[in-house]
Design brief:
There is one protein chain. With 100 residues, this protein is of the alpha+beta class. The chain has one domain: Orthogonal Bundle (Arc Repressor Mutant, subunit A), CATH 1.10.10.10. The chain is 57% helix and 14% strand. It has a three-stranded antiparallel sheet. A hairpin with a 2-residue loop joins strand 2 and strand 3. One of its GO terms (molecular function) is DNA binding.
């Protein structure tokens, strides 16, 4: 972890909904239904479910998720037309260790 990446992550986390999304994705089975096709959370949570839970517009959630993926906090997996996001636990661990 370098200072530039840590600063980018810090900027990304300066928004309550984004922090809340990370919190929800920590235990997705408690906060979201499994996608009707996949029936599991191995690849993350469908964007539609994140948007519905957050109660924000699709464009706002898409921007938030794209920014979080860009700085490495989230990993995206696509299945056909569906996009799934999960936490990048390794990067989150590195970030918290960097701050200690």
């Amino acid at each position: 972890m370098n200072l530039k990446l840590a600063t980018e992550i810090g900027k990304c986390l300066s928004n309550n909904p984004r922090v809340q999304i990370l919190e929800w994705l920590k235990e997705p089975e408690k906060h979201f239904p499994p996608h009707e096709t996949l029936k599991h959370f191995n690849d993350g949570v469908c964007v539609t479910y994140i948007q519905e839970k957050a109660g924000l517009s699709q464009s706002t959630i898409s921007t938030y998720l794209a920014n979080m993926e860009k700085c490495g906090l989230l990993i995206i997996t696509r299945h056909g037309k569906w996009s799934y996001f999960k936490r990048n636990e390794e990067l989150i661990r590195q970030y918290t260790e960097f701050l200690l």
